[in-house]
Amino acid sequence: MLFATSMVSFMSTLDASVVNIAIPHISRELGVPMNQAEWVVSVYLVAICALLIFFGRLADQIGRIPVFQTGTLIFVAGSLACGLSVSLPMLLGARLFQALGASMVMSSNFGIITQAFPMGEHGRALGLNSTFVQIGNIAGPGIGGVILAIANWHWIFFINVPIGIIAFIVGYRIYPHEPVVFRHVQVDWPGYSTFALAVISFFIAIYWGQGVGFSHLGVIALFALAAVLVVGFIFIEQRVAAPLITLGIFRSPGFTIGIITAMLVYMVGYFNNVIMPFYLQETLALSSATAGLILMAVPLLNMISAPTGGIISDHIGAEKVSFYALFIFFVPLLLFLFVQPAWSLGWLIFGLAMFGVANGAFQNNPMIMGNAGKEYQGIAGAMAALGRNIGMALGLSLATSLLYWDMSQQAGRRVTAYPHAQPHWFIQAMHFSYGWAVGLIGSAVLLLGGLLFYRGHIAEASR
């Protein structure tokens, strides 16, 4: 059950990051500008963010396994359609369909695992699942580079089809078959519509702002609309009989801080996904295959540290393990903050490996799910996936915005592509961006450290 669940989780997360390294190839083959080709990444992430909460609520009502298995089939069909695409509109439509399946999978996988395993093994089981999820997120550029070295970009999507079919068959044979009852389904349509529009407005504002500037009146208006919609969503959820999100779940400091810190970590992870492929392929002039192999240092070390961290979290708590892991992040981030093209590749590989260690040891899933009650496991899983995907989407937009802004400042004009004639602009912008990444991890340290201090103070006062 854990294998079948984790394999599909891996694929759905992988497809959020694997396309990054293929953007130049897609741009050339489909004959579209680079900034339009980047929609292939952003459309997938934004659609998942808009759909996750809906399917998390639905999974709690009709069953997590039916939602997960249906999502697997939709994701496989969407992957096949992506691979067969011959134009940008066709590819974007297929990515939306793929995101539909991915959101169904992501909203229900954690709930299936916590339901199947006893409480004492949640850390180990979710730690192993985290291995697949985190590897899917950070291994995308590496796996994509290796695939592009031997095949075209279509195979980035085709590879999902046989794996997804096998995972579905294994799940069909192993998962308990429960009757699906739809007559008790209650959907908070006003709340969901408000939430989805808020997410879409927010990310359109970000991507539009990258091109025209964030002081543009239309961009400011979209940000304001998103803020109003969020307030409206909270107002609706407090008053409907069957809310989309039971806001009481956020009364748990461990759950709320777990969501926020996981979002910050995934934001930083996407700095690597966006910046490192450009640095390796454009600045260092390495091939896609070589860049992919170097980037594989992250998931290889992640594979070791994630299950190890899960086992340790069963003994000392996921929050403590995650807190210690955050300090490991400073090693690679400070290295990337100062790295120069003249440095040995060994330093870069070491930094990526340490990033994999830190990313795997950070136990976001056990931390989030362990702080949610049994009645909240479905929506908690959806919120965990939502935080992860919002983190990735924000990381993508923030990393590119910081890169473009700093290069534009150096050039004295708007720059929205790699400056081949002035590579030092990119290097300085990369260092500037990683300075922000250090700040994001520092914020996560303060939040998680505050939670541990608060719990320690409460425990001491109760003695």
TrEMBL record:
- Membrane-spanning residues: 40-59, 71-90, 96-114, 126-149, 155-175, 187-208, 214-236, 248-271, 321-339, 345-362, 383-405, 434-454
Q: Name one Pfam family in it.
A: MFS_1
Q: Per its UniProt record, what Gene3D superfamilies does this chain match?
A: MFS general substrate transporter like domains
| Cross-referenced SUPFAM superfamilies | MFS general substrate transporter
Q: How does it sit in the membrane?
A: Multi-pass membrane protein
The entry's keywords = Membrane, Transmembrane, Transmembrane helix, Transport
- The Major facilitator superfamily (MFS) profile domain covers which part of the protein? 1-461
Localization, per the record, is:
Cell membrane
Q: What broad class describes the main subcellular location of this protein?
A: membrane
Q: Is the keyword Translocase in the record?
A: no
Instruction: Provide the protein name.
Output: MFS transporter
Organism equals: Schleiferilactobacillus harbinensis
